[in-house]
Each structure stands twice: as C-alpha cells, then as structure tokens.
C-alpha cells in the first residue's frame, strides 16, 4: 500500500507539474497573441483616427482659410471703395471750387498756380504753402487757382479756353528743373509753349541738367521753347542756377529768390530737446556713401542716444500722398517736430529750410548735386548753420557747436528778395 501510495503521489506531482507548465505555456502564448492582436488593432485604429483627424483638420483649415480670404477680400474691397469715395469727394470739392473760379464773371485778376505736387514729400508741400503765402502778401486781391499736377490733364483745356488778359500763370517751384525730372520739365515746356500771350513765372527752382549728351539735348529743347515766350520770368534758388538760366535762357527775366517755404517762418515757442536727423535714404539722391551714412548715424546717436531720423516723407493717409486739403496740417506737424529739437542734422534742402523756419541750429551735408551748397552760399548767413559738404569727420564737433549756439535769432536770409521778385513780375506783366 505504501508503495502504491508513493507511486500515485509521484505520478500526481509529475502530472500537476506538466499540466501547470502546459498551462503556463498556453497562457504565455495566448497573452502574446492577444497583446500582439491588441497592438495591431490599436495601431490600425490610431492610424485611422490620425488620418481622420488630418482630413478633418485639412478640411477645417481650408474652410477657415477660405473664409478668412473672403472676409479679407470683402474688407479690403470695402476699405478701398470707401477710400476711393473719400478721394472722389475731396477731388470733387476742389474741382467745383476751381470750376467756379474759372467761370467767375468778376474782374479780379487770376493767378493759375500749375503743377502743385500731391506726392509724399513734405518739403514740396511746404513750398506750395509758401507760394500761397507769397500770393497773399504780394498780390492781394488776386484770385489764386491751384491746379495739382495730378489734375492737370483734367483742367488744361479749361484753362486754355477761359484764360483772359490780366491773368498770370505761376509754375510750381522746387528742385525739378532739368534733365532728371522730365515729367515736370515736360509740363513747363507745354505751358510755356501753349500760353505765349499770358505772362508765365517759374517760381524759385534749382536748375540742374546732366553734363552728358542726353542732358545737353534736354537743355537745348527747353531753351528753344523758353526763347519763344515774350513774358517769361524765372526765379532761381541759388547762384549756380541763376548763372545757368541767364546763359541758356537769356530772353527771360531772372533773379535769385529764396525757396518759397521760408515764408512760413515763425516762432513756435516749444521746449527744445536733442538731435533730429533728417537724412535721405542712400538710394534717394543721397550724396553720402554707405560708410558715411553709417558714420553720421553713429556720431549723432553718440551725442544723443535718443536721436530719431525723419526722411521728411509723409507716411500716413491714402497712398501716403499729401492731398491739396491736407498740406497745411501735414507741414505744420512736421515743423513742430523741428521746432522742438535743439539741433537738426540733414542732407535735405528742406531739412535745412525747416530748421531755418523754426530757428533751429543746423548741420548740413550735400546731396547728389549742388542745390544745398548754392542755397547756403546764396541765402544763408548765420553761424547757427554749419555746412560740412561731405566731411563726416567734423560732424561731432559741429553738432556740439550748434548746440552751444542755441536757437537762431536770425536766419540771415534776405526776405526783401521776395518784394524785389514781386516788383520784377509786376513790371513785366503790367500788374498795377
């Protein structure tokens, strides 16, 4: 019995061990297969879910992008349409005003100011404001009709057919007489050629024709047209321009007269602080090299770490343009900026002129041509304006000297030249 019991126990243990081992093997195999199956299912589901999410995201993104584009296009279209309507209303009002003057039956003598700019150059806008002031002071009682260059085509024929004896044409002043700005040169040629029976005055200009075959050809074309006008007066913005005018346009009366913007001179009474840079971009008629430009900026900011640069170009409004009804406000705002500075450093002629208008000491560099040098030499007589030409190394000492000088008590500009210009114009035109 003992042996039989022992044998049974051995057999039972052996069977239990084999069964346990077999169960373990089956369980491990099943667990592995189940795990693998679960992994496959999970991966398949994750892939399908990811793909579905990607499809949803792409569809949503496309719909959102399309909706944003539609909204943007709609808003841009509405804004553009609104701006066009505003511009149309502005132009319409100005045109109606000009039309009423053109058709006026009163006997007031009329001055047609032709070719006034509406681009973004604040200096050019200041010239127009000064020209309007010149007419107000020296031709009182006359009617001024301001015709912007953008509207010249619209009004040219109306001027031709309504101009009458006693009227006079003023052509916009500035620095565009010559071979560089042929659009403006063409306007002068057309007006002077077409209105031979009407006195024409070219307001103060810098004249510059390139010393090249093309430049000499343009000068000869202009000279031939000018020679055919019996009552042409040309005002020069400097001695070299006057010399050129008298040599090549001998039949016209000519004289040196300061830039008309200087008639805006006044004391703003503002607190002054720091250095204001008014420096051109290197690709905009600059007379500075890359290294000189960098040196100017560094030298000014070493003295005044907060020194800002204005290029005297208007950045606001519709298309950045200075429309006829905006000129006074835009120019006044910029002049206040100059009037609140201790010193101006500039290579722009109207950077210098704005400094003179506001009695601000100024350090001046040349631009690409002689217009700044001739203006300083001809009109500016004050120690508070320091002309360096292109000698950048002298800038730090010049800024300090200008600061020590303080606000200008006098610009040294002879404002009697405006009265002399008026007298010359009146004598040539017969204005009483």
Spell out the key features of this protein:
single chain, 432 residues, alpha/beta, seven-stranded parallel sheet, five-stranded parallel sheet, 12 helices, 12 strands, 55% helix
What would you note in describing this structure?
The chain is of the alpha/beta class and 432 residues long. The strands form 2 sheets. Strands 1, 2, 3, 4, 5, 6 and 7 form a 7-stranded parallel β-sheet that branches. The chain has a 5-stranded parallel β-sheet with strand order 9-8-10-11-12, sandwiched between helices. It is built from 12 helices and 12 strands. The protein is elongated. The mean pLDDT is 87. The termini are far apart. The longest helix has 101 residues.
Write the layout of secondary structure elements.
Elements: H1 2-102, E1 110-116, H2 122-138, E2 143-148, H3 152-162, E3 168-171, E4 174-178, H4 182-194, E5 200-208, H5 213-227, E6 232-236, H6 239-248, E7 253-256, E8 275-278, H7 290-303, E9 308-309, H8 327-339, E10 343-346, H9 349-357, E11 362-365, H10 371-379, E12 385-389, H11 395-405, H12 416-429
Parallel strand pairs: 1-2, 1-3, 3-5, 4-5, 5-6, 6-7, 8-9, 8-10, 10-11, 11-12
Helix pairs in contact: 2-8, 7-11
């Amino acid at each position: 019995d003992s042996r039989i019991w022992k044998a049974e126990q051995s057999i039972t243990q052996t069977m239990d061990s084999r069964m346990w081992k077999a169960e373990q093997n089956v369980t491990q195999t099943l667990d592995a297969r189940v795990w693998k199956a679960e992994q496959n299912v999970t991966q398949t589901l994750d892939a399908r879910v990811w793909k579905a999410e990607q499809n949803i995201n792409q569809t949503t993104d496309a719909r959102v992008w399309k909706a944003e584009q539609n909204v943007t296009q709609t808003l841009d279209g509405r804004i553009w349409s609104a701006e066009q309507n505003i511009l149309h209303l502005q132009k319409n009002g100005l045109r109606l005003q000009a039309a009423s003057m053109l058709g006026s039956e009163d006997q007031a003598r009329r001055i047609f100011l032709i070719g006034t700019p509406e681009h973004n150059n604040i200096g050019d806008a200041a010239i127009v404001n000064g020209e309007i002031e010149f007419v107000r002071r020296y031709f009182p009682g006359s009617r001024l009709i301001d015709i912007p260059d953008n509207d010249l085509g619209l009004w040219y024929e109306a001027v031709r057919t309504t101009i009458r004896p006693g009227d006079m044409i003023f052509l916009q002043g500035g620095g565009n007489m010559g071979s560089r700005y042929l659009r403006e040169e063409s306007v002068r040629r057309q007006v002077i050629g077409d209105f031979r029976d009407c006195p024409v005055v070219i307001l103060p200009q810098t004249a510059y024709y390139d010393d090249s075959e093309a430049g000499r050809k343009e000068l000869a074309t202009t000279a031939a047209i000018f020679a055919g006008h019996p009552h042409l007066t040309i005002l020069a913005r400097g001695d070299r321009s006057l010399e050129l005018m008298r040599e090549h346009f001998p039949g016209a009366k000519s004289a040196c007269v300061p830039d008309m913007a200087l008639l805006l001179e006044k004391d703003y009474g503002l607190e002054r602080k720091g250095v204001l840079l008014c420096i051109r971009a290197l690709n905009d008629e600059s007379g500075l090299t890359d290294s000189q430009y960098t040196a100017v900026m560094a030298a000014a900011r070493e003295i005044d770490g907060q020194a800002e640069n204005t290029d005297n170009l208007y950045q606001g409004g519709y298309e950045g343009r200075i429309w006829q009804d905006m000129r006074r406000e835009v120019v006044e705002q910029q002049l206040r900026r100059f009037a609140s500075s201790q010193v101006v450093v500039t290579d722009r002629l109207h950077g210098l002129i704005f400094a003179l208008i506001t009695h601000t000491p100024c350090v001046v560099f040349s631009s690409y041509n002689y217009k700044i040098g001739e203006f300083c030499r001809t009109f500016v007589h004050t120690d508070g304006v320091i002309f360096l030409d292109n000698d950048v190394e002298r800038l730090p000492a010049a800024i300090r000297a200008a600061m020590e000088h303080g606000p200008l008590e006098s610009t040294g500009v002879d404002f009697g030249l405006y009265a002399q210009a008026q007298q010359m114009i009146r004598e040539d035109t017969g204005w009483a």
